[in-house]
């Protein structure tokens, strides 16, 4: 577990086994700040994900970034909540340099993502950091 993990990520890091990890992801997904329906459009959709994923990122108002996201998959909503929790603490410069792969590894998330989900999350992170 990482000492600098945020609350949702810490709960995930403490989960033992797939069943508990899945439960924590589902609970995390309930904490996801929802992307409004009208913003779930082609421009905001992340292509390449097995599940549909939409996200917006703003970095022009606050000193930290502000991410809103949604997915039609409960598991991916949980992963998005973990990502959103971290993104919303980072400045735009810090976000571009942040190592999400290392973060996912530190909290144990990478062990439980299927290859197709991991590829989709990789596309999400690439979109966030671009």
Automatic annotation (TrEMBL):
Pfam families: SufE. It comes from the Bacteria. Residues 10-129 form the Fe-S metabolism associated domain. SUPFAM superfamilies: SufE/NifU. Belongs to the SufE family. PANTHER family: SUFE-LIKE PROTEIN 2, CHLOROPLASTIC (PTHR43597:SF5), SULFUR ACCEPTOR PROTEIN CSDE (PTHR43597). This is Cysteine desulfuration protein SufE. It comes from Marisediminitalea aggregata.
